[in-house]
């Protein structure tokens, strides 16, 4: 398929980026935007990717699917970028994947829905661990603690539907029983009705699947209702913003998350340790703000494109980058250690996650 991107002879690596820097998902997208700009500036200051500077073109989709579509169309048709990183959310990614694919431009999504890369589209990749990996880590922990009767409460958006699908599939496969299956809307501000229904069936544990602010509301409602049943969250709340929103109600909650938010707790000999600490220190020094798992996705996306250049003969054309991405092996990123192939456009597995709890208003790796 012919690419609409510029000629391979261009002397810059032209990367388009779309993220939700404003709107409901800004707690995800703003760190992505800031990181993309920071990493681009750092790489260019050090001489570029194999001597080729990066030109970053960023658009804020404002967490709006229509604006996201328009932004990607603009990157493809007007800006003629070599690759696109983003969007931030699963719903927006699913809405724009075909645009990039039909144009023959590699897209590296920063969202986690498994259907982004399953089935594999030759032009679509993602840099976050998959929802099935997060579910697997939660269920492994639940099994270890003897929790057999599980209740789930999931948000009715793209991210929530993906998580719900895997929870419904993997809970019975793990020999456990799904005793309640509740939904809530992305803009709902009270979930006491759903939690009351869950409380009435007395599960061993509850799994909430969503991104802020809904999970923070659920955490607070749980405390208000006097529910002491253990509560798992998804990896969609792995930012300090969740702890701020939930306040004291966050205490003791559990979730699977990438190692970035617990970088100091990782053993010094872990392959990711240096990468995590370098990124964390750079981000927090530059922006005077706590590092976020989600900002790390932009770090990994740009890093993977740079790694792809090592396999493309320094050819920055879209097709060469796509082919190069499929040859990346053992790239150490913030989300994990990536090994991509024609059959796997994610390159991560369940080992990318640590099980984490919230203790004294901060993250702590669980034993």
TrEMBL record:
CDD domains named among the record's database cross-references: PBP1_ABC_RPA1789-like
Keywords: Amino-acid transport, Signal, Transport
Record flagged with keyword Plastid: no
A biological process term (GO) from this entry: amino acid transport
Domain Leucine-binding protein: 12-348
Source organism superkingdom: Bacteria
Family, similarity comment: Belongs to the leucine-binding protein family.
Record's protein name: ABC transporter substrate-binding protein
Native source species: Oceanidesulfovibrio indonesiensis
Taxon lineage: Bacteria, Pseudomonadati, Thermodesulfobacteriota, Desulfovibrionia, Desulfovibrionales
């Amino acid at each position: 398929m012919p690419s609409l991107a510029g000629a391979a002879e261009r002397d810059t690596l032209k990367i388009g980026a779309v993220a939700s820097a404003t709107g409901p998902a800004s707690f995800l997208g703003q760190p992505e935007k800031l990181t993309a700009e920071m990493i681009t500036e750092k790489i260019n200051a050090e001489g570029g990717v194999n001597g080729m500077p990066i030109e970053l073109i960023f658009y804020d989709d404002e967490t709006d699917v229509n604006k996201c579509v328009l932004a990607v169309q603009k990157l493809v048709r007007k800006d003629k970028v070599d690759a696109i990183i983003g969007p931030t959310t699963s719903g927006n990614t699913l809405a724009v994947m075909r645009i990039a694919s039909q144009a023959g431009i590699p897209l590296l999504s920063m969202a986690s829905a498994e259907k982004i890369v399953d089935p594999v589209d030759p032009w679509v990749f993602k840099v976050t661990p998959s929802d099935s990996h997060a579910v697997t880590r939660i269920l492994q922990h639940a099994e270890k603690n003897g929790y057999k009767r599980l209740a789930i409460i999931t948000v009715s958006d793209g991210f929530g539907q993906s998580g719900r699908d895997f929870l419904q599939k993997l809970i019975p496969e793990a020999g456990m029983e799904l005793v309640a299956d509740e939904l809530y809307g992305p803009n709902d501000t009270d979930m006491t009705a759903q939690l009351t229904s869950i409380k009435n069936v007395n599960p061993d544990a509850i799994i909430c699947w969503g991104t802020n602010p809904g999970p923070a509301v659920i955490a607070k409602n749980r405390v208000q209702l006097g529910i002491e049943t253990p509560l798992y969250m998804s990896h969609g709340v792995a930012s300090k913003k969740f702890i701020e929103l939930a306040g004291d109600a966050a205490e003791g909650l559990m979730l699977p998350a990438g190692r970035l938010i617990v970088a100091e707790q990782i053993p010094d000999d872990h392959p990711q340790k240096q990468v995590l600490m370098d990124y964390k220190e750079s981000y927090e020094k530059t922006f005077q703000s706590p590092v976020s798992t989600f900002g790390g996705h932009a770090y990994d996306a740009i890093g993977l494109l740079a790694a792809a250049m090592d396999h493309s003969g320094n050819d920055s054309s879209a097709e060469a980058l796509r082919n190069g991405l499929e040859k990346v092996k053992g790239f150490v990123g913030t989300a994990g250690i990536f090994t991509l192939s024609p059959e796997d456009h994610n390159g991560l597995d369940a080992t990318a996650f640590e099980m984490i709890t919230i203790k004294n208003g901060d993250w702590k790796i669980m034993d």
